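Researcher: Last one for today. Full complex below.
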Amino acid sequence: MNIRRTSAVTAAVASVALVLTACGGTAEESEDGGINQDTAVTVAWEAPLNELNLSSTNGNATQNSVISYMLNSGFNYYDDQLELVQDESFGTYEKVSDDPLTVKYTVGDDTKWSDGTAFDATDVLLQWAATSATFNNVEPVTDENGEVTNQDAVDAGVFFDGTTPGPSLIDEIPTISDDGKSITFVYSKPFGDWELDFTNQFVPAHVVGQQSLELTDAQEAKDAVRDAILGSDYAKLSPIAKFWNSGFEFTSMPDDKSLTVSNGAYTLEEYVENEYLTLKKNPDFKGKNQGSVETITVRYIEDPMAQVQALQNGEVDLIGPQASADVRSALEALPEVSTNNSVEGTFEHVDLVFGNKGPFDPTNPVYGGDAEKAKKVRQAFLLTIPRQTIVDNLIVPLNPDAEVRSSQILIPGSPNYDKMVADNGSDFYPAAGDIEKAKALLAEAGVTTPINVRFAYNNENARRVNQVALITDSAAKAGFTIVDTGRPAAEWGTLLGTGQDQYDASLFGWQSTSTAVTESDANFRFAPERGLNNYGLYNNPAVDAALDKLQVSTDPEEQFQLQLEIEKQLWADGFGTTIFQFPAIQAWDEKLEGVEPITISPTIFYNFWNWKLGA
Amino acid sequence: MFSFISRRLLAGLGTLLVSTFAMYLLVSASIRPFEDLEQSTNPNKLEQIAQRRELLDLDTPAVIRYFKWLGDFVTGDLGVGWRSGQPVSNMLQGAVISTIQLVAAATVIAILFGVMVGIVSALRQYSTFDYLTIFVSFVLYSLPAFWVAVLLKQWGAIGFNDFLKDPSNSPLVIVVAGLVIGLLCMLAVGGTVKRRATTFAIAFAATAGAILYLQLSNWWLDPNLGPVIILVTGTALAFAITALTSGLKNRRALGASLTTVVIGLALYYPLQSLFRMPFSWMYVLGLALVTVAVGIAVGYLWGGPDKGISARAASLTAVVVAGMIFIDKVMSLWPQYMGAPAINGRPIATIGSSTPNLGGNFWVQTLDTYTHLLLPTLALVLIQFAGYTRYSRSSMLEVMNQDYIRTARAKGLPEREVIMRHGFRNTLIPLATIVPIDVITLLGGAIITEQVFARPGMGTLFIRSLRGAEIEPVMAYLVIVAALAILANIVADLIYAALDPRIRVNA
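Model: Here's the assembly. Have a good evening.
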């Protein structure tokens, strides 16, 4: 037994020795494991891309537009002053006539899709067809059980789901030049924001044609799309619309690469669901804003602190997490990281309700038909809102440069903001509030205090709860008693929109996604139809008239004058007050140079053509 | 038996039906599909709202929508996540795989360590080690996941990566590490003063020596196990495994275990050339099966009256040795991995499940997966570990006070056999009912852990869909979790019955 064991071990050791000598030679060979040696800039973003058609219902979201910003070029874009800049390397456009408003777009000769197909007027034409509702001839109708009753008609009909107001004003089918490079639109009535109607949201018409009409040749497919639109061929437009609505939706790299065709500085290289996507520089891109880094990776990280730690760990180079005091202090403690405090597109404001027989309603019987009294009460109330204290206590810890916003329409930092604030009459309401003036106004109005003000807000939002507490304190000094009608988030939206008889003042945020002058229309309009966002039932014919003019004004200076006129009315009427712009924070590794975030989308991705990755 | 299972399944189905109904109503009451539009100042807001109302069929009462959803669900149509237009079945696929990847390792490690520590602590009841274990496990048990995760990232990833820039430990660190490990081992092993002193000295020397070795051999930057470490560790483990499974007196089992170590070593270099071929997890699985087979064969070849016991010890050892060879190969790519531009000398990741733009072959990818799994796994282990320690400790204590243990001791069985064969096995019975339920709970996604580590698993899918007011992915998730929970309970009952002869399922 003993001998047997010993011999077994000996044999084993001998065999090891043999094998060792036999294989010793090859063990030294090293390999690099096939590792990719290229460098990349990595950016963190909150939500993953879900569609490359930015104009359809599902595609209309920030996570898509920021990626598309790098993939696709366009006729114009915002610069760091939020001024719209023409990109003439992509194509040009000019207003040919004011009456009727006629705009001619001409595509540059070098503008191409990444698969080599030329970008031309047909791509612009498709954008118009899809967003103008001209061809929409059927909408799903549902019975009381929610079943679509006209499914066959919907299947056969045409329904593009991306209708927008501007292109809807172009009723006439546009004309395309013979070389297919120019397209001319004639508006049925002037439209202030015409420049924002066709910017950079184009989808490749030839891909739409190939996919929906089962054609293989790119040019043939493109021509088919063009002919279908120009000839109002509903039978062909039906599949085109269906594909346009949802064909470009994907959440991981699609098998069919034609869906990712783009016309800008980068092409989509890889997309791993919910994790990251990789953009590679498009070598054939001839436009002005050439990608400067070879590869850009966007990683999807929802948690703000996780973004900060990923930055610290070198996994990402650039982040724009949701701002909070924690995030800010964590970022400021990081060495070799640049931090930028700024603002985002959403702003906080207080609106008063005019049409509910409450304290701010001019028709409230208490005032005996004297609208002037109600106005003084409104002004007095707005004077008690401690805007500076709110900003100092709640926003400055998140953004040390935070300031009180004093314009109802313009974003701070936009071209005319300073001029607007100087002239719009908001200086009647000092940022710090003015209790004495408020008391004096109340005395003039001759109302008995205390006045109950029912205050509506989302009471699950800690910041709003704190603001209401500050307002309650301050308002009490002048004789207003705040009655808390805050609701949880789930009920708050309904209360705001339809429960005007249950509140007198409301506190919430509006989000701007562009500098479109018609964007504020819905907030202030009463006639002929109340604006969708005019929750306070504000009614001022002068404002409505100015809004009407603004809709059709195409001259930037005139537009500003109209906006100023509207704001003067609003501030004088005590429509409400604006408090602060939501804080934003961005941070990047110092070795990444050229980052310059802007207030509205694409925020941190703006200026990607100047990014440089230092050593 | 059959009637028991079918009865339980039917009852489970009923529970599932009722719970989906309740959940559907609750979810549809709590989500706000228009939230993003409420703040919008888009000029076409009205159309957007109308379209969404249409799309989500919101004019239909939730109860009717539930039955429509149920009808689709049972016919295999899980619906669509409307914000991205993706079918729910696609969304689930990736999420399930990611979650299983995360949970599998964490559960196994937590069970192994938890049970081990729990049992040792039970055997040393009321000793310092026992109190220490109780203290630590309660601390871990009460730690919030998001906090542990953030700390792990700070020290385990950022701190460790910084350390890798210049990997050297000061003598003080080495001594302290040695003292701590030495102390822990001493407390765990216990015994007379002399024995304690010896244990402490050995553990101290081993720890300090290991750290010194790692440092002097530049191990942190060019890690490897190499034949020498595999031989030393393998031999030690062969002894340990034999000691636990059959006792060192069983010379055949020991011989068989040692033989597999030798075979493993003999194959070390030939395997290196094999590893250079295009590799995949299928090969790994195949090799693992071969390894087990070789272990069993060696055990049988050593012969004797209890071949089975030898085979068990040998195959266990074989798996451990093969595992070390595999790890060694993965480690060998560490320098290249560290040098990759996508890694940039900071290998331990805080987010995601893979590095973008890394490229690389099977081994690089495997290494990359590990560096991403490390921290989330550790976070889960720390929290779960505590529970298992508590369970196994109390279960072991109860068992060790049973009459049959006294009988076993009285009839003169060696203590190892009393503990391993009579104590340990019975300790596992209550654990067998806890583990399946625990695993299922984890499959539902370690929501917070996934969120903080930005892993695209089930938990992330759930929370994202809920925030986005997408009821169909949320329901799919809830149905899966509920169904698994019901199944887990049935399985736990069956396991219990199989393990404990006192329980009968058809009773």
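Strands of chain B lie at 80-81, 86-87. The two ends of chain B are 9 Å apart (CA to CA).
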